[in-house]
Amino acid sequence: MNPAGRVVGLLLTSQALRGLGYGIAAVQLGAILRLDGLTPAGVGLLLAAVLAGTLAASLALARWGDRAGRRRVYAALYAALACSGITIASGAPLWLLAVVAMTGALSVEVIESGPFTTLEQVMLTGTGRPQREVVRGFGLYNAVAAVAGTAGALLGALPPDRRLLGGVLAVVGTAGMVLAARLPASVEAPAVSPGSPRPRMLTRSRGPVARLAALFAVDSLAGGFVVQAYIGYWLSLRHGATTQAIGITFAVIGVLQTASLLAAPVVAARVGLLRTMVFTHIPSNLLLAAVPFAPGLGGAIALLLARACLSQMDVPTRQAYVMTLVPVEERTAAAAVTNTARYLTRPAGPALAGFILPLGLALPFMIAGAAKTAYDLTLWRIFRSVRLPTP
Predict the structure, then answer these.
(1) Residues 6 or more apart whose Cβ sits within 8 Å of residue 55
(2) Low-confidence residues in the chain, pLDDT < 70
(3) What is the predicted pLDDT for the residue at 377?
(4) Architecture label for domain 3-185
(5) CB environment 23-32: b (16+ within 10 A), e (fewer)
(6) Is 274 exposed, middle or buried (0-12, 13-18, 19+ CB in 10 A)?
(7) Where in the sequence of the chain do the CATH 1.20.1250.20 domains occur?
(8) Taking the model in full, what pTM does it have?
(9) Angle CA 139–142–144, to nearest 5
(10) Which residues contact 34 (CB under 8 A, 6 or more apart)?
(11) Which residue ranges traverse the bilayer (predicted)?
């Protein structure tokens, strides 16, 4: 296998293993903490530590990741994940688990956008393949995450067991270290010439990356208004949907979203990255805003399924767009900054949705649809005249 193919294969395997572990953790971690007698405040503090660790690790990666070495940092993150698993399985005290959580290796979501993702985006882009193949790689990368995370969540439906969760995370972390050791030297950042000063973070692309980060933060905040947990709650409250109906709906949505991730590179090859990002997202936003106006449960589900066919097509194209837009030596910092911006604002969405819920059940859907559409139109207005570098 050629070096580029080897990198892609190793990263997809890594993503699949990590998605499986995070899927189990997303379901079981809270239940385990509750069974251990932890108060809601304690659970919140621990999850806050996970989030804080993700943010801190991402920002540190932006500043020092290339200097330390991508493979070395990647292996260190997996070592931290293995330590997290051992800590959970052994029933260690909360303070120790909080310390381990601050490493940034754990995740509060099935599909994370933290330091692992940042490094993988950069390494996938640095394979030297044509842009079309890079975009296809991002589509497959995200589809693998979705499928593996779903499988992990299904496995997490077993009775809560700290040894199961901790053991899986420890195995995933150990396997990840082995995969990191097999990555070729070609994934590292370009070497700095002897005697030359190290470049500052985001020297040439600071303006575009800052604008993209701000826009991505708005999009992520809007998406937080309609996370799946809220949609499931809304379906049961508004239409009396059973958990079985909601579960089946979400399973089908997952299948359609995976298909859209794989279809996005095909569309981008014909119309371009930015057009795919914007003009598949706008119809998705309109469908989202229309959900609360459906006359019955069947209509609401039909709109959600139609939206799922388009809602994720901007994900691989967005990742590829950022990596193509910035210079090679600034890709790690650009990925870290834009991913951190999305991760920083998303948790506020559900809290705001709950706050405005008494004012109307439709408001979170309408606000999310309107804000996301504003994001798309602004993105198009700012970047439509920007020419991407020729690969």
Answers:
(1) 104, 340, 343, 344
(2) 1, 40-41, 44, 47-48, 51, 108-113, 127-131, 191-201, 229, 243, 347, 350-351, 390-391
(3) 97
(4) Up-down Bundle (1.20)
(5) bbbbbbbbeb
(6) buried
(7) 3-185, 206-383
(8) 0.76
(9) 105
(10) 43
(11) 41-61, 73-89, 138-158, 164-187, 208-233, 245-273, 285-306, 351-371
Burial class (CB in 10 A: 0-12, 13-18, 19+), 238: middle
What pLDDT is stored for residue 367 in this prediction? 93
Under 8 Å between Cβ of 167 and 24: no
- What is the distance between the terminal CA atoms of the chain, rounded to a whole angstrom? 23
User: Which is nearest to 314 in space by CA: 279, 288, 287?
Assistant: 279
Give residue 1's pLDDT: 62
Measured CA to CA, the distance from residue 201 to residue 340 in angstroms comes to: 15
Secondary element (H or E) of residue 272: none
Distance separating alpha carbons of residues 122 and 65, to the nearest angstrom: 11
The closest alpha carbon to 32, from 98, 89, 77, belongs to 89
Residue-level pLDDT at 193: 55
Instruction: Give the residue ranges of DSSP H helices in the chain.
Output: 3-35, 40-68, 70-89, 94-101, 115-125, 131-155, 162-181, 206-224, 228-239, 243-271, 273-290, 297-308, 314-325, 331-345, 348-356, 363-383
**pLDDT given at position 329:** 81
Read off the pLDDT of residues 60-76 as tens digits, 9 standing for 90 and up. 887 788 888 889 999 99
DSSP 3-state of 187: helix
